[in-house]
C-alpha cells in the first residue's frame, strides 16, 4: 500500500524511466505568482518554432501565463488542446495582422522537447508557500 511519499516517488521513478529529468521543487527559485517553470519555456518555444518572431513568442507567453478565466477543468482543457494542436497567435507582418500556430511540443522531433518532473512544487497563497497538491 502506498502512502503519499511512496506514491510520489513511484511516479517520479516511472517518469525518470521514460526520460524525464527530476527536479526537487524547493530547490528551484521561481515566481510564486506564475504556475509555470519559466526557466525552460521561452527557450524551448524558440527551439521548437525557429521561424517565429519575438512578438509571436511574447503573445504566446502572455496567453499561456494569463489563460482565460474559468474553472480549473476548463483551463486544463484549453492547455491540453494547445499541447496537442498548437496555440493560435496573432502577429503583425508588414502592417497586416496575421494569425499562426505556435507549437508547444515538437511531435516530429521528440528529442527537441524537454520533459521534467518537479515534486514538492509550491505556490503562494496570501504570501505564504503552500504545496500544490493541497489545492
Task: Describe the 3D structure.
By secondary structure, the protein is of the alpha+beta class. The chain folds into two domains: 1-33 and 114-135, no CATH class; 41-105, no CATH class. The protein is built from four helices and six strands. It is elongated and about 60 Å long. Residues 124-135 have low confidence and may be disordered.
List the helices and strands and how they pair.
Layout: H1 4-17, E1 21-24, H2 41-48, H3 54-65, H4 72-85, E2 87-93, E3 96-102, E4 116-119, E5 122-125, E6 128-131
Parallel strand pairs: 1-4
Antiparallel strand pairs: 2-3, 5-6
Mean pLDDT reading: 84
**Cα end-to-end separation:** 24 Å
Quote the beta fraction.
15-25%
How would you classify the quaternary structure?
single chain
- Strand order in space, largest sheet: 1-4
Shape type: elongated
Q: How many individual domains?
A: 2
Radius of gyration: 17 Å
Based on secondary structure, the structural category is alpha+beta
Helix content: 25-40%
- Give the strand tally: 6
Order of helices and strands: HEHHHEEEEE
Spans where pLDDT lies below 50 across 5 or more residues: 124-135
Quickly count the helices: 4
Q: What can be said about the biggest beta sheet?
A: 2 strands, parallel
Amino acid at each position: 500500500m502506498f502512502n503519499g511519499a511512496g506514491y510520489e516517488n513511484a511516479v517520479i521513478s516511472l517518469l525518470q524511466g521514460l526520460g524525464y529529468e527530476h527536479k526537487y521543487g524547493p530547490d528551484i527559485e521561481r515566481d510564486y505568482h506564475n504556475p509555470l517553470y519559466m526557466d525552460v519555456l521561452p527557450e524551448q518555444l524558440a527551439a521548437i518554432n525557429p521561424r517565429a518572431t519575438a512578438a509571436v513568442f511574447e503573445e504566446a507567453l502572455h496567453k499561456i501565463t494569463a489563460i482565460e478565466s474559468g474553472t480549473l477543468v476548463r483551463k486544463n482543457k484549453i492547455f491540453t488542446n494547445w499541447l496537442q494542436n498548437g496555440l493560435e497567435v496573432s502577429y503583425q507582418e508588414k502592417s497586416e495582422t496575421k494569425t499562426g500556430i505556435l507549437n508547444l511540443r515538437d511531435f516530429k522531433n521528440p528529442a527537441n522537447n524537454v520533459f521534467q518532473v518537479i515534486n514538492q512544487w509550491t505556490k503562494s497563497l496570501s504570501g505564504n508557500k503552500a504545496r500544490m497538491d493541497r489545492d
